[in-house]
Write a structure and sequence with these properties.
Order of helices and strands: HHHHEEHEHEHEHHHHHHEHHEH
Helix content: 55-70%
Structural class: alpha/beta
Shape: globular
CATH superfamily of one domain: SGNH hydrolase
Largest sheet: 5 strands, parallel
Number of strands: 7
CATH topology of one domain: Rossmann fold
Number of helices: 16
Strand order of the largest sheet: 4-3-5-6-7
Strand content: 5-15%
CATH architecture of one domain: 3-Layer(aba) Sandwich
Distance between the termini: 85 Å
CATH class of one domain: Alpha Beta
Radius of gyration: 23 Å
Length: 423
């Protein structure tokens, strides 16, 4: 039996803990103490819910546009003959767009949104802000602006061009096209070339996962297992937080978010190694790797950006020929020197892979040059790589994706330029 003194110590410890928890909860609710990480119960619930999904369904929920709330089966990617890959939810959205825009008349103003995950992620916060800014213009009185989001994670030129072509071929009739891109084309170029994949090929991690066939080497199988284990651990943390209602407590939310950040960093690290193994397996298979491209990092960047520029010219030519307004926005990235002064929160974010760092260092100045050349040739291409150059606010959640403030700031930057192309 514990002595009287021991019992008093145990009681004192329990009282201390019981007193500390409410204090910690109150402190965690003071958002000023956590810059760039305001607590909101509803947002925390959505955060845990999205991260409780398997990877494909999570990406559809986070980056998937208007039809985000789909089943896991409908979110799984499969090969598409023109766009590289798609899924059932995206194909259903395409059918709905064709049905609702082919004979719509003047009731709606339909915008086709294209690009990668940054464009896809604009849907929740930036798109409504962009829509409000455009509809406030007297020229749009009485018309409802609808944005059809076909931006998808890892898409890179010429995939957005092919989506536009495919939708138009099916009979969709948007009044405008908005394309936000530039990062994926640049960042993946060196990673591809160093591993034997053509610099302008679709994302090797997605493409090889869908069509690798017999190229399952032992090293690739081991790394697939490592990624799967890391993702299972990540899912377990998120599902525990979701099922136990951690979103109701600022303290539990912040503790769970910290654990999720660590788990996500492990997933990213293992996924980077997986991309290496996938590319090695792809290098021996032309279906996976594309045309041979032996060359330097500089040559790889130039090949990818040449594809980007040619795709841009083709997209805007198609739009002009069909009387469709268009605007292409070159997106900023935190990894591009001079993009913005990093906040304390942004300095703590994981760095891009070395392949991506090299590609962005070499490629973003060249990307800006090509964007300027397109604009000089009269094409509706605008450079947003310095849109945040004077902001000290936290805008990024990683080197490429934005938080709510970043999405809203980008929408405010795009709105007058987009409106200018619509008049």
């Amino acid at each position: 039996m514990p002595s009287s003194r021991a019992k008093k110590r145990i009681l004192a410890i329990l009282v201390g803990v019981a007193s500390a928890v409410p204090v910690a909860e109150l402190v965690c609710r003071v958002n000023a103490l956590f810059p760039g990480s305001a607590w909101d119960s509803a947002r925390a619930e959505a955060f845990f819910e999205a991260r409780s999904l398997p990877q494909a369904a999570y990406e559809m929920r986070v980056y998937g546009g208007p039809d985000q709330h789909v089943s896991e089966a409908d979110a799984l990617p499969y090969v598409h003959p023109y766009t590289g890959w798609t899924n059932a939810a995206t194909d259903a959205l395409a059918a709905r767009m064709v049905d609702e825009t082919s004979g719509d008349g003047e009731a709606h103003f339909d915008v086709l949104l294209l690009g990668g995950s940054v464009a896809g992620n604009m849907s929740e916060r930036a798109v409504p802000r962009l829509v409000a800014a455009v509809q406030a213009d007297p020229g749009f009185a009485g018309r409802q602006m609808r944005v059809w989001n076909f931006a998808r994670p890892a898409y890179r030129a010429p995939q957005p061009l092919h989506w536009c072509e495919w939708l138009l071929a099916l009979g969709a009739r948007p009044e405008a096209v908005l394309l936000v891109d530039g990062f994926n084309e640049t960042a993946m170029s060196v990673e591809h070339a160093r591993r034997g994949v053509h610099p302008a090929y679709p994302s090797s991690s997605y493409w090889s996962a869908l069509v690798r066939g017999a190229n399952l080497t032992p090293a690739l199988l081991d790394q697939l297992a490592a990624v799967r284990l890391a993702r299972r651990a990540q899912l377990s943390i998120a599902r525990q937080a979701r099922d136990l209602g951690f979103h109701r407590s600022a303290l539990l939310t912040r503790l769970a978010e910290r654990r999720l950040r660590a788990a996500s960093a492990l997933v990213e690290s293992e996924s980077n190694l997986l991309r290496v193994e996938q590319a090695r397996a792809a290098a021996s298979d032309r279906l996976l790797a594309g045309p041979r491209h032996p060359g330097t990092d500089e040559a790889a960047v130039d090949a990818a950006l040449a594809s980007w520029e040619s795709s841009a010219r083709a997209l805007h030519a198609i739009c002009r020929a069909q009387g469709i307004a268009s605007l292409q926005v070159v997106q900023p990235t935190l990894a591009d020197e001079g993009a913005k002064p990093a906040s304390a929160e942004e300095r703590r974010l994981p760095a891009a892979s070395l392949d991506w760092q090299d590609a962005i260092r070499l490629g973003y100045p060249r990307l800006r040059e090509r964007a300027a050349r397109l604009a000089q040739d009269g094409l509706p291409v605008v450079d947003a790589t310095r849109a945040f150059a004077s902001s000290t606010e936290t805008m990024f959640v990683d080197v490429v994706h934005f938080n709510d403030a970043g999405n809203e700031a980008l929408a405010d930057w795009i709105a007058p330029r987009f409106l200018g192309e619509l008049k």
